[in-house]
Design goal:
CATH topology: Immunoglobulin-like
Order of helices and strands: EEEEEEEEE
Distance between the termini: 24 Å
Number of strands: 9
CATH class: Mainly Beta
Number of domains: 1
CATH superfamily: Immunoglobulins
Number of helices: 0
Structural class: mainly beta
Shape: elongated
CATH architecture: Sandwich
Amino acid sequence: MHQHASTRRSVHGQSFLVTLTVTNTGGAAANGLTAAAWLLDGGGAATGAGRIPPCGGARGGASRTFTWTFTGSAAGPLTFSTTVTATDANSAAALAAGPLAAGR
C-alpha cells in the first residue's frame, strides 16, 4: 500500500480539508482499511478528524481517497501524520503504510 496526504496552513477559526489517498499497489484486495488517529505537529494547531470511514477496502491497483475537515485553533504551519493498515484478501497478511507526514 502507498498513501499520500495534502493539507494547507492552519488559520485560527477557519476550516480546511486534509485528504488522504491510499493506493493498493498489490494484486489482491486490501480489506479493512484503517487509519490511526492523526498526529499534529508544528507551530499551528487544529481540531477535528476521525478514522477512515468504513469502506470495506480497496481492490488490487485501486486508490481510495478520504477527506477530513479540521478547524484552525492557532495560526501556523502544521504537519499531519498517520499510519494506514489493512489485511491482504488472499493471504490474510497484515499490510501497513506509513507513518506518512504531510504539511505546509
